[in-house]
Amino acid sequence: MDLILFGIQGSGKGTQGKFLRERYQTEYFETGGQLRKLAKEDSPLGKKIKHIIEAGHLVSDDVVMEIVANFINNIAEGKSVIFDGIPRSIGQAKALDELLAKRNRDFNAVILDLSTESAMTRLTTRRICENCKTAYPATYKENTCNECEGKLITRTDDNADSIRVRLQAYADETMPVITRYENTGKLIHVDGEKDIEEVSNELYEKLDPIFK
Question: Is 18 a residue of the active site?
């Protein structure tokens, strides 16, 4: 069973994704991370991605799905995958559904529900590790990352105007995908307004019966 993880920026999706990966011993597909990894490889797909990035072009849905297929083809048989950052659009959702169906991979989706007001507050007050990109809320008082001891910084695009653009893009492009999975009975809701531990506990309560 695979899992598609949804959540508006600021919902803690990346943090909870790491916890879920460790708890259920899954593979983890994060689109941005896979792009950066493949761009460093001396392979046909790696060279294609490097060329696209260096040319300043957006990565098309076809190439994204090629990356997903490459990822699935290189994991152990029977290993579950958590997808983080895909699908972002209806086009990607249809392509991902088709790809998983061809490989006889069933999946569920989970969304960390968070209001846009809470997302705005979290994003304008968080800090990011400059090395591993782990995000920390305003309540975290240290100046170094707990994961790699990197320096914590404020992202230049974590300002109100930039955040509004990103949240609107999520509403326009990704919410229709979430509605699609809701309508097919694939979607599990989790309250993302709670603190990190409470969110984790609700996730485990709802996902343990699926993965264990």
Answer: no
166 is catalytic: yes
Q: Which residue in 18, 37, 50, 88 is the catalytic one?
A: 88
If one counts the domains in the chain, the total is 1
Chain segment 95-135, per-residue pLDDT in tens? 999 999 999 999 999 999 999 999 999 999 999 999 988 88
User: Of 21, 122, 126, 127, which one is the catalytic site residue?
Assistant: 126
Which tens digit of pLDDT belongs to each residue from 71-104?
A: 999 999 889 999 998 999 999 999 999 999 999 9
Closest among 98, 61, 103, 100 to 83, alpha carbons compared: 100
Residue 164 a catalytic site member: no
Specify the CATH number for the domain of residue 173: 3.40.50.300
Separation between Cα atoms, residue 2 and residue 54, nearest integer Å? 32
